[in-house]
Design a protein that fits this description.
The complex is a heterodimer of chains A (255) and B (252).
Chain A (H helix, E strand, L loop, with lengths): L1 H5 L1 H16 L8 H20 L7 H22 L7 H4 L8 H28 L11 H25 L2 H15 L12 H9 L1 H13 L7 H25 L3 H4 L1
Chain B lengths: L4 E14 L5 H9 L6 E15 L4 E6 L5 H9 L6 E5 L6 E4 L12 H11 L4 H15 L14 H14 L4 E5 L7 H16 L3 E5 L3 H7 L2 E6 L2 E6 L1 H16 L1
Parallel strand pairs in B: 3-7, 3-8, 5-6, 6-7
Antiparallel strand pairs in B: 1-2, 1-4, 8-9
Helix pairs in contact in B: 3-4, 4-5
Classes of the chains: A mainly alpha (255), B alpha/beta (252).
Chain lengths: 255, 252
């Protein structure tokens, strides 16, 4: 871990590299990363707000609260499947703590998530008649737990892809399934009790519900919810990082 | 810094897989059909190599293609874990491997951005990079091209930037693999001057090359590898003779 701290400059440079390369030479630059959530929010709020009404009040805002953190989670996980494999050229030639790659992937997506928040929330205040309340302050610990939870799974995905290239395709399909099993475009309360169990078996649901509690229902985080997401984060990080540590000695030979 | 780089009885085995499968499907099919099953075979690329290198010494590794030189260098660099044996670094020493010049250079980034990226890949922090930046630019003679994307560099410019960075990273133990084979004669002279300087600065240098003139010129001691086995350890002149004997043996 101490050597990881030594390499903080590398993590910073890797994140900056990805950001620069993604937006260099494009006219709209970083605004492109807002296009995807914006389109999703517009389409879903039209479909569910007008064609099938009866969803949560202020539906576009409800969507926004769920979609932005989901996008961060899904894009981080998807990208992390290539974190080790795509850096094989480096890993075969320089000895360095390989943790930097999944960490940098996660931070790159976190940067985009935060930039999106900075643009979307003032818009929400302006257009959706949302007002800031004290409950928003729990956003910070939720974000922190969500980030670490995502990192733990990123360790697993980046490791697994080195040994089984299938993981990339599997993750893509799994994320599609998880999206519908997460209360992002519908309210968990409107789901029949028997099906709600399935919803709660999906760990991502608990994080999205926590975001909705704080930002949509304007309620402070309940102790139950905090416990659940803390335990999920702990499990993801411990299992993910252990797996990574066990397998990383073989990375240079396998990539 | 004091103490030697100690390589003790190091061996490295690779598992060679015939029918190598990275996909789950073929693994499952392999359970039922022998023909699709992965065949494993162990290949010992390095077998029981031991030597010490003192500070201020240039140690050469020579051998034919596939004799295990590069693998040994990667094991010493910490890229591959040794299957047996151990590597001991002098206390507090920083080791750097130049397996390839310009590792981590990204074609779309400028020369300056690449210096910062590549130096941080070798574990330098920002202050350390800023401190060497001027020297790297000066060595590479690319002052006017620092804002140009590296994809527009010629291969010579690319190599100069890579070597300029490598010689300024200030490692105590240097592992150099064949990187001097690039550039024109003037550039190679400049590189040799730097190796002399490192030696004067009491750095520990491990050097892999196919150029026997260079080996005789700069090495204090050499190790000859053949099929992963150390067949000779001693003076460069005798080592080079041994190496030539191995080459002749191969032809006859």
């Amino acid at each position: 871990m101490s050597s990881l701290f030594r390499y903080r400059e590398l993590i910073r440079n890797l994140v900056l590299k990805d950001l620069k390369l993604k937006y260099r030479d494009s006219v709209l630059g970083f605004l492109w990363s807002l296009a995807n959530p914006l389109l999703l929010i517009l389409v879903y709020s039209f479909v569910f707000g007008h064609l099938f009404p009866g969803g949560p009040a202020n539906f576009a805002y409800f969507l926004m609260v769920g979609i932005l953190p989901w996008n961060f989670f899904a894009q981080s996980l998807m990208m992390s499947t290539g974190s080790i494999l795509d850096n094989g050229n480096l890993i075969r030639k320089v000895a360095l703590p390989m943790e930097v790659f999944p960490i940098a992937t996660m931070l790159f997506n976190l940067a985009q998530y935060l930039l999106a928040l900075i643009v979307f929330f003032p818009m929400a205040l302006l257009f959706f008649k949302v007002s800031v309340t004290w409950s928003w302050i729990v956003f910070v610990p939720i974000l922190l737990l969500h980030v670490l939870f995502t990192l733990g799974l990123s360790f697993i995905a980046s490791t697994a892809t080195v040994f089984y290239r299938d993981v990339r395709h599997f993750t893509e399909i799994l994320l599609m399934l998880l999206f519908w099993l997460t209360p992002i475009i519908y309210d968990a309360q409107s789901v029949p009790a028997s099906l709600r169990t399935v919803l709660y078996m999906n760990p991502v649901s608990h994080f999205i519900l926590a975001y909705q509690d704080a930002l949509y229902h304007n309620a402070f985080l309940s102790l139950d919810r905090l416990m659940v997401i803390s335990i999920l984060t702990f499990l993801s990080l411990v299992l993910g990082y252990s797996l990574f540590l066990i397998c990383k000695v073989r990375f240079a030979e396998e990539v | 810094m004091s103490g030697e780089l100690q390589v003790t009885n190091v061996s490295k085995a690779f598992t060679i897989r015939h029918n190598k499968t990275d996909s789950l499907k073929s693994k499952v099919i392999g359970i039922f059909h022998k023909r699709y099953r992965e065949q494993r075979e162990t290949l010992w690329a390095v077998k029981g190599v031991s030597f010490n290198v003192s500070p201020g010494e240039v140690f050469g590794l020579i051998g034919r293609n596939g004799s295990g030189k590069s693998t040994l260098l990667k094991v010493i660099a910490g890229i591959y874990p040794p299957t047996q044996g151990k590597i001991q670094l002098p206390n507090g020493a920083r080791m750097g491997a130049m397996i390839e010049l310009g590792v981590g250079f990204h074609p779309e980034l400028t020369g300056k951005e690449n210096i910062f990226l590549s130096a941080s890949i070798h574990g330098l922090n920002r202050k350390e990079i800023e401190a060497i930046y001027g020297a790297v630019v000066e060595f590479s003679e690319l002052d006017a091209f620092m804002d140009t994307p590296v994809k527009n560099y010629s291969s010579g410019m690319h190599a100069r930037l890579g070597f300029g960075l490598a010689v300024n990273l200030n490692f105590d133990v240097l592992l150099i693999d064949e990187v001097l084979a690039v550039g024109d004669e003037a550039f190679q002279h400049k590189c040799m001057d730097h190796i002399d300087r490192f030696q004067a600065e009491n750095k520990t240098i491990l050097f892999v090359s196919h150029s026997m003139d260079v080996i005789k010129d700069i090495c204090d001691r050499v190790c000859v590898l053949e099929h992963g086995l150390p067949v000779f350890l001693g003076k460069p002149d005798q080592g080079v003779e041994q190496y030539h004997a191995l080459l002749r043996g191969n032809h006859s």
